[in-house]
Structure formats: structure tokens, C-alpha cells
Design a protein that fits this description.
Blueprint (H helix, E strand, L loop, with lengths): L14 H4 L6 H10 L10 H14 L6 E4 L7 E6 L8 E6 L18 E3 L2 E3 L7 H17 L7 E6 L10 H8 L1 H4 L3 E4 L4 E5 L2 E11 L1 E10 L3 E2 L8 H12 L10 H14 L1 H12 L4 H7 L3 H7 L2 E9 L5 E2 L2 E10 L5 H12 L5 E4 L13 H14 L5 E6 L5 H6 L4 E3 L5 E2 L11 E3 H19 L1
Parallel strand pairs: 3-6, 3-7, 7-17, 8-18, 9-16
Antiparallel strand pairs: 1-2, 2-6, 4-5, 5-19, 8-9, 10-14, 10-15, 11-13, 12-14
């Protein structure tokens, strides 16, 4: 899941957007949020079937709608809008599943769309049912208007992105039904975004890459024994000391050409001492003082380097027994272009203890960035300037993860294009009382409608 996302719409949209008899994006969002699509105890299939009925009633031929998956639960919806040519399609993607939300943790029911104080509350409003509802509303509008794009447009609303399910929808589609989603490139609603401060948009990002996700297991073993007779080599002590050596361990920073553009433009926007450091880093990636200043911000630091951090520790088997093993999980977030095996070797040297066994538990995967397409950049800039005159568009990398990784690995360039503004200090995705501002959702509906028509033509 990425940090630059959001979601949602007002009770009544202007008729120019949806048409008097069309379901509004707000109605779609309510239907999506009200559906429990968690991996643990929910299901995307009833929601997918309901959305499919909407598209059939709007006039999409049954043969251009697919409800697919390996089992009856957690299915995926694919809708194809036929174009005028045989050019390779454009894929539009969002996921319908959400992370767990417990009623006792929330002020309101997380699985009921609630309007309060100018916001819509509910699990998935930011991540990422807001964008899914915006996309579905735009496709329904194009169908009702008889809009004929220059090439096929494919909408994929999928399951399994957040985990907790028995499979990932995009990964399964690529392996089993690639013909349904094969495309020249993908527009991913689960990435990029319009970043605001106190409700005022500052810039829009076009996500062209994301960090790779790997898990590295550290393990120390020992015969154990009675706790009354301790001896050197206690696995918990050995592992704890080694983990302590990882505190403050920063991998080398890397500023490639695309990141130099990012830091230069962000420096202009940020201003002040931090902005000056960003511009200095863009001009000279070897400027250690500028890098240290920029890296004080956790998000900026994550953009500068591959990171390795402990996320889980397990050890021992009884209170009165010496431990026979201790394990720790390290999460590696890999910059595109870095080699995970080289990173593991740097970690091994830092730990400096041969008693610790290192095992990469995630399969090695390529982690390519998508090339900047001039036609897509121009379309996004046109659509953005129509919605927010003067708002700059900045290519970026997402430090989190999304299904875009599977598509890039399969050779389908993918671009994060979320269009619902989100305040930089109000990121609640995966958290308590997830919400989006109603007026921002309105703007996001219009923004995506403009963008899909730009690329569709």
C-alpha cells in the first residue's frame, strides 16, 4: 500500500459528470465501503457481482465483463470498453479488498460509509475504494454516453492486494488470464496522488516506480537447557546484540537521474532550509550535508536509500528454559536498481556474527521502474491543469508497495495516478477513522474523468 492515496464523493454530482439516471460515484463508494472485503472474514465476490450488474444494465455486453478467480470467494471484476482501433489496450486498476478494521477501535462503524463534518469516513476511503469508485463511475459514464475510445480501455477491480487472502488477484490474472488485462500500460489508482496542505493542493505525483519488498530472517540456535545453569551463547542475547548493531545502520544513498528531477522540483515547492538542501542534493548527489538534512524526514530518507528494519522478533519456548532458538524478521525495502543479495551481504557484515543464519524468505523478483511516457505525462498535465490550474506534476517513486509491482515485473509499465487530494498530515490508510474530505472526492471524480478521456483519445 502507498501513502499517496485517498477517496470519495458528494451525495449529488453535477449532471454533467454522471447523468441524471446514472449511479453517482458517491453511491458506488457507499456500496464498496459498506461491503466487508477484508481477507480475514470478508469477500469481494458479492460486491463484484453487484458492480457487474451495474455495467450490464448500463449497456456493456456480457462478453466484455468477466468475474474470475481461483475460487468462489474473493473474485475479481474485469470490464472492457471497446475502442476504435486494434492498438494495445490501456489498463485501469484498483483493488477492492481492505485491511482489517475493528469496530471497537473506531469512532464509527468502519464498514458503513459515514458523513461527518465535511468528511466521509469508512475503511477503504483512502486505500483504495475511493479511487475504485471514481474509476467505476467514469467507465459507467463513458458507456452511457456511447464514448468510443481510440483503443480498448480495461477496468480491473481486484482482490488480495492487502494480504490476508489466499491469493493475489493481479498475480493470478497474469498467470492464468493475462489476456483479460494485457495492456500497453496501466493506470494504477493505488499510487501517485494530489498532495495537499490544509486542504490546498500543492503538487501532483506520477508514480513510475516503487520499492521492492523482501523479508530476511535472522536465526540463532542452541541446544538450550535449564535456566538455572546459563552459559554463553544464549540465542536471545546473541540476536538482541546483533539487532542493536542495526540501529543507525544506513545503507548507501543513491540519487539517480529521475530522483534528481524529483528533488529539484520538491526543493522549489518546499522552500526554506529543507528546500535548499533538496536542490543542493539534486545538483550534487554527493553532497553529504544536504543528504543528511533531507534524510531527517522518514519519507525523504526512504526515497534516498534501500532500508532494512526489524519488524518481528520471536524467541524461547518456556520461562524456565534456556532458549533453543531466536528469530527476527527484517523488512527490506529495495530501491529499483539495487541488488537484494548485495544488500544482504552488507547486513551480514554489519551483524558481524557467524552464529546468525540469514535466510531470504521472499522470492527474488525484478524491480524495474516504468519509463516516463511523454504522451502520458502530457495527458496528465493537461487534465491536472484543467482541474487545478498551475499545479505541478512531479514523477516519483512510492516507498510502499502495490499490485503495480506484479505488472511491471510482467512487462506492463505501470503508473500511479491517484487524483483525490489528500492532506500530507492526515494519512489514515490502514489506520483508525480512515477518511477523505468530501470536496476533495468531488475534485477527484472530475480529475479522473478528465484524465481517462485524455488518454482514451
Amino acid at each position: 500500500m502507498t501513502s499517496l492515496r485517498a477517496a470519495f464523493l458528494a451525495l449529488s454530482l453535477p449532471l454533467v459528470l454522471c447523468g441524471q439516471d446514472a449511479p453517482t460515484a458517491r453511491a458506488l463508494l457507499k456500496e464498496m465501503v459498506d461491503a466487508d472485503t477484508t481477507g480475514e472474514h470478508g469477500d469481494t465476490t458479492p460486491l463484484v457481482e453487484s458492480l457487474a450488474r451495474r455495467f450490464r444494465e448500463a449497456g456493456v455486453p456480457a462478453g466484455d465483463i468477466a468475474i474470475v478467480g481461483p475460487e468462489a470467494r474473493h473474485r475479481n471484476l474485469i470490464v472492457r470498453l471497446r475502442g476504435r482501433s486494434k492498438a494495445k489496450p490501456i489498463l485501469v486498476l484498483a483493488h477492492l479488498d481492505v485491511v482489517e478494521a475493528k469496530r471497537e477501535d473506531w469512532t464509527r462503524d468502519p464498514f458503513k460509509l459515514t458523513e461527518d463534518g465535511g468528511y466521509y469516513y469508512g475503511r477503504g476511503t483512502q486505500d483504495v475504494k475511493g479511487e475504485a469508485s471514481v474509476q467505476a463511475a467514469a467507465f459507467l459514464r463513458m458507456v452511457r454516453e456511447g464514448f468510443k475510445p481510440s483503443r480498448d480501455l480495461i477496468l480491473a477491480l481486484t482482490a488480495g492486494e492487502e494480504g490476508g487472502t489466499f491469493y493475489n488477484g493481479v498475480e493470478w490474472l497474469l498467470a492464468n488470464r493475462r489476456e483479460l488485462i494485457d495492456a500497453e500500460y496501466c493506470l494504477n489508482g493505488d499510487g501517485g496522488g494530489v498532495i495537499a496542505r490544509k486542504g490546498v493542493p500543492r503538487y501532483r505525483t506520477l508514480q513510475t516506480a516503487e520499492k521492492g519488498f523482501y523479508m530476511l530472517e535472522l536465526e540463532v540456535t542452541d541446544p538450550g537447557g535449564h535456566s538455572s545453569m546459563p552459559r554463553p551463547g544464549n540465542p536471545i542475547h546473541v540476536l538482541g546484540a546483533a539487532l542493536g548493531r542495526l540501529e543507525g545502520f544506513d545503507l548507501p544513498l543513491r540519487v539517480d537521474e529521475s530522483h534528481r528531477t524529483f528533488w529539484a522540483r520538491m526543493g522549489e515547492l518546499e522552500g526554506g532550509e529543507l528546500g535548499a538542501a533538496m536542490k543542493a542534493l539534486a545538483a550534487n548527489p554527493g553532497d553529504a550535508a544536504a543528504a543528511a538534512k533531507v534524510a531527517q524526514d522518514p519519507v525523504a530518507n526512504a526515497n534516498l536509500r534501500t532500508t532494512v528494519k526489524a519488524t518481528l522478533v520471536k524467541g524461547g519456548h518456556a520461562e524456565n528454559a534456556l532458549p533453543q532458538s531466536a528469530k527476527a524478521s527484517l523488512n527490506i525495502r529495495l530501491l529499483p536498481g539495487d541488488d537484494v543479495q548485495e544488500i544482504i551481504e552488507l547486513v551480514r557484515r554489519r551483524l558481524a556474527d557467524s552464529r546468525i543464519k540469514l535466510t531470504l524468505t521472499s522470492p527474488p523478483r525484478p524491480n524495474p521502474a516504468s519509463p516516463l511516457r511523454p504522451d502520458l505525462v502530457a495527458a496528465l498535465e493537461r487534465a491536472t491543469s484543467q482541474q487545478w490550474p498551475g499545479l505541478p506534476v512531479i514523477p516519483c517513486m512510492d516507498t510502499g508497495g502495490s499490485d503495480g509491482a506484479f505488472l511491471r515485473q510482467a512487462g506492463i509499465p505501470t503508473y500511479g495516478i491517484s487524483g483525490i487530494p489528500q492532506d500530507e498530515d492526515d494519512v489514515r490508510a490502514h489506520g483508525r477513522d480512515e477518511r477523505i474530505r468530501i470536496t476533495d472526492f468531488d475534485k477527484g471524480v472530475e480529475a479522473f474523468d478528465r484524465l481517462i478521456r485524455e488518454v482514451g483519445n
